[in-house]
Structures are given as structure tokens and as C-alpha cells.
Design brief:
alpha+beta, binds zinc ion, 1 helix
Length: 91
Amino acid sequence: MKMTVDEKIICPYCHREMTKWACPPESTWGEGVHYICFNDECSYYVRGWAWMMEKYAVHASYRYHFNPITGERGPIPVWDGNALKNAIIED
Ligand SMILES: [Zn+2]
């Protein structure tokens, strides 16, 4: 199946377009272009703060992440509102 670069990936939690994100090669997530929902009002991200505090007593959250190479989707941890944003791929 051929995937075009401009294909829109929509976050299932806030229904906003997800942002292209360059996964760092040293990460365990796998190299390449991934998608992350950087919407600060996304329910997934908003709920994550309370969840992480409750479960692990840490000030952190996670954003919804999609790896189009493996088809994997799920949380990617963030420690503040700007975390991971340095690797955003601008169109
Ligand atoms: Zn979202």
C-alpha cells in the first residue's frame, strides 16, 4: 500500500490533524517520520497529567503518537508542554 506524504492523520481523541514529528534515531520508537497530537486541549493529553500523578506521582503526561512505519499507536511521554516540539517537521 502506498502512503502519500501529505496524507492527513487525525487524532482519534480530539479529531485534530496530527503533527509530523521526526523521531530521534537514538529513541526506542524507531526512526523516521511519526505523528504526534500536539493539541494542548486534547483529552488524551489533558487526562494524562492526572493519570501520571495518580499512578506514578510524577509531573508528566503523554501525547497521542502514531508510527506509520510500524502502525503502532499509543502514548509518548512528555514532561512539559513543550517537550518533543523541537523535532516537529514544518510543512
Ligand atoms: Zn489529540
